[in-house]
Write a structure and sequence with these properties.
The complex is a heterodimer. Chain A is mostly beta strands. Helix content of chain A is about 0%, strand content about 50%. Chain A is globular, with a radius of gyration of 13 Å. Chain B has strands spanning about 5, 10-15, 20-25, 30-35, 45-50, 50-55, 60-65, 70-75, 85-90, 95-100, 100-105. In chain B, strands 2, 4, 5, 9, 10 and 11 form a 6-stranded mixed beta sheet that branches. A 5-stranded antiparallel beta sheet of chain B has the order 1-3-8-7-6, with no helix packed on it. In chain B, a hairpin with a 2-residue loop joins strand 6 and strand 7 (about 60-65). The chains are: A mainly beta, B mainly beta.
């Protein structure tokens, strides 16, 4: 069974630029999560999708971050414009449903200079 | 105050030692997760539990719902167990809270 795929693995951008991350969850997984993990800290949930609907985006900085999962499968997370403090690893995870174990992707390491 | 607190923050052990990592939480939960993160690597889910005890190989996870406490035990520790172990809970309000992790180093 293929795992959660994410791309790119690494990204370096200048502040005020835009960036987008892509996630392909495990086939059949209805729930998809985006996390932000700043160096030395635990992951922070940014947004949770159930199929193509948003379940929780309470910690998503909506002035600059957006995410979509239009067809209930792949998802993209966008930052526009990026700030220095957005430097982090962005993790995508999926689960069969929100009461099941989560499977994490390898993450995208973003550096904002 | 964080909703999830882990201890210790850092732990160094000799190979073969029995290791315990603790997690306390302050919210009502529907599930607790133990995750493992290797340096530069992704996160692997070790356990998801809502009561009692689970065992997988040399790893054992326990949870006491009344005391809002969970422990992760590693028996016969090995250098390849060196990683950050993260405790996370899903609250009854369906929100996720993560601990800051315990960095474990096992010395040969």
């Amino acid at each position: 069974e293929a795992g959660v795929a994410q791309s790119p693995r690494y990204k370096i951008i200048e502040k005020r630029q835009s960036v987008a991350f892509w996630c392909n969850p495990i086939s059949g997984h209805a729930t998809l999560y985006w996390y932000q993990q700043i160096l030395g800290q635990g992951p922070k949930l940014l947004i949770q999708f159930q199929n193509n609907g948003v379940v929780d985006d309470s910690q998503l900085p909506k002035d600059r971050f957006s995410a979509e999962r239009l067809k209930g499968v792949d998802s993209t997370l966008k930052i526009q414009p990026a700030k220095l403090e957005d430097s982090a690893v962005y993790l995508c995870a999926s689960s069969l449903d929100n009461s099941y174990e989560q499977y994490f992707g390898p993450g995208t390491r973003l550096t904002v200079t | 105050k964080n909703e999830v607190e882990q201890s210790p923050q850092n732990l160094t052990a000799q190979e073969g030692e029995f290791i315990t990592i603790n997690c306390s939480y302050s919210v009502g939960i529907s599930a607790l997760h133990w995750l493992q993160q290797h340096p530069g690597g992704g996160i692997v889910s070790l356990f998801m539990l809502s009561s009692g005890k689970k065992k997988h190989g040399r790893l054992i996870a326990t949870i006491n719902i009344q005391e809002k406490h969970s422990s992760l035990h590693i028996t016969a520790s090995h250098p390849r167990d060196s990683a950050v172990y993260i405790c996370a809970v899903r609250s009854t309000g369906n929100q996720f809270y993560f601990g800051t992790g315990t960095s474990l180093t096992v010395i040969p």
